[in-house]
Design goal:
Elements: H1 6-20, E1 36-43, E2 46-52, E3 59-66, E4 78-83, E5 95-98, E6 106-115, E7 118-119, E8 126-129, H2 147-150, H3 159-172, E9 176-183, E10 189-195, H4 204-208, E11 213-216, H5 225-239, H6 243-251, E12 254-257, H7 262-267, H8 288-300, E13 304-311, E14 319-322, H9 331-352, E15 356-358, H10 375-381, E16 385-392, H11 405-446, E17 452-453, E18 483-484, E19 490-493, H12 495-499, H13 513-520, E20 525-527, E21 530-534, H14 543-547, E22 559-561, E23 565-570, E24 573-575, E25 578-587, E26 590-592, E27 597-601, E28 604-606, E29 609-612, E30 616-620, E31 623-624, E32 628-631, E33 636-639, E34 642-643, E35 647-650, E36 660-662, E37 665-666, E38 670-673, E39 687-688
Parallel strand pairs: 11-12, 11-13, 13-16, 14-15, 23-25, 24-26, 25-27, 25-28, 26-29, 27-30, 28-31, 29-32, 30-33, 31-34, 32-35, 33-36, 34-37, 35-38, 37-39
Antiparallel strand pairs: 1-2, 2-5, 3-4, 3-6, 6-7, 6-8, 9-10, 10-12, 14-16, 17-18, 19-21, 19-22, 20-21
The chain binds zinc ion.
GO biological process, one term: proteolysis
Family: Belongs to the peptidase M14 family.
Biased composition (Polar residues): 117-141
Amino acid sequence: MRRQRPTLIAVSTLIAITLTTAAPTPANAAPPDQVTALTAHQADGYTTLAWQPVDGATDYQIERTPVDANGTPTGAPTIVGIWRPNRQINQQAPTFADAGYNPGDTFQWRVRARNGTTEQPYSDPVTATTTAPWGNPTTPGEQLRTGWETTHAAQYTSDTDEYAYTAAIDALSDRVRVVELGRTVQNRPINMMVIGHPTPATTPEAVAATAPVAINCNVHGNEPGDREACLIMARQLAFSTDPRITDLLSHTTVLIVPTINGDGRANNTRGNSTGQDLNRDYSLIRQPETTAYIKMVRDYRPVAGYDGHEFGNSRAGDLPMLPPRHQNVAQPIFDQSQDMIEGHMYAKGAEAGWWACPYGCEGGGNVGLSEETILRNTLGLKNVTNSLLELRSSGGQTRPDEGNTANNRRRKTYSALWTFHQFLDYHRADRADILKARSEAIESQAGNTGRLVFRGSRPIPAHPAPHPGDSPPPLDAPPADLILDNPPCAYKLTDAQYNGARTDGPGGVGTTVAQRIAAHGWNVITIGDDHYVPLNQPERGLIPLLLDGKGVEKLTDGERVYPTLTGRRNGPLAVTGFTCADDATINGPVTVRAGAALVTTATTISGPLTATGAAGVLLADSTINGPARIATTDTISIIDATIAGPVDLSGNTTGTDAPVLAGTTIRGPLNCTGNDPTPTNLGITNTVHGPRTTQCAAL
Ligand SMILES: [Zn+2]
């Protein structure tokens, strides 16, 4: 019932008094300021309580009482939640996700409003049995439980329990394949569950074609709440017959990495066994754990991701989130990530009762900045729509019952489980937009236009109004000395820089720059003893952060190489050495000589392009008004180009990096034969007006 204005109360009271002798007030009429219409909706590990708001209420208290099957209390009532107006974006339909109980038990809930410290009457009670842990205890597969579940959240699932549990899911479900991505410093396996319906695609390239999603569950070993959610969700995805689940898994592949930091988890430390914070290493990949994850991103090409953490600010929301903010992240990826967080998670959180907010909300401190070493930013720079998730590690004033350790852990884990399911739903509903953002991002990155920023974030708005006292996450705008307005075409590395021994890994033995660049999946052109990393590539925003002298956390000081070919040029052109064309118009045939390389952006070539035995041909945002023939060349990338055709890619051996032909229009036939590996389109389809041969038939 709405609280009435004092004058109206006076009038209604007068009427009530006048009518008392004739008609008594109905016994079931709620007093003013009593919460009404309380409902309790059950979900996995939590209960959504919803009620009619009371005008003038400053907050609400949520009371929970354990009861038996007859509804008789078996324990004391406890205030388990405080709803405050900063919880959700829709104040007219208050909801609260109550978690922190043993799933399957039966409870009675009541809710009351408070005006300041003045408590109003409790609502009528609602009694319900909560949802038991997912999976029929007698059905094979479904009956599996994690160590955390069987100990009623008294213990986290151990490393050996995790391996046994994931192996059992793998053995019992056709939908799941467990692959080992690598090993930790202490030789623990880093496993990934590859989940699809009816079976997951069999190779990384085939998985990539399904626009997969990736959840990184536990990078900080002492933040284990998300990992337990991942393990429970894996069981649901593996065995559920819910049409929603089978539909989700029929339209993508879910990649779950429960524990990238197995050593840190086993020892309950933030860093790995060397003390390295792995979430400050995803760009540098000094450690085997981060290297394994980045190689996975290269090979499986997830289009969207979540990265699970816990955070110690007890005043912040249940679920602080944050998109990739680094200013080198392509705008469409930033926008899509914000759409996922603000457009989906905030709205769905207000329905389910979970308090999603920007990481850094409620005085969250100097967190969530632009370091490209953080997975959130690394993934954004790899054109992956993604978010950080920070489970609030302690209950705080809004969850006063969570001095109980098990209850606190349950709230964290089941709020993460909710988030990850919502993430899958978002991908299912917005897949086309996610893929469009990715395509636009890759094309704009490969175009190599605009300034480069070495450190600096985009601003993030505060949680939308009404949110009293809320402030936006801190902003680390780029300082002038970390901005490069005129981007180079490429970085040139000496052989010592590229292949030289390093000491920045575990035990003082690091992998080479060449190995790390290969793990990132960047194209490199080698001419003699020089190694060129062109910027007209999909990860253009990340390359300078590692290879430019201005890089704050860089691998080496590469030499900036600027274009030598610009403006108009008439007559045949024979390319020798490393030649870079930008904003050029070349009227005449172009031949890339054996051992030479051509890199173009915003360039038009009028005449055939021929390269035989070349070191590399990388074209982006360019036009060839004639045929193109590229054979026995070491490095090939054609992105967002228009070629009159025919195009012939034959007999190219490009090592670990497949020839790229993406987002390109060919007004003629496309012939691809004898290339090793087979060309890829990075998930961006080409338009080919003529016939295509086998290796390029699906591009
Ligand atoms: Zn963390």
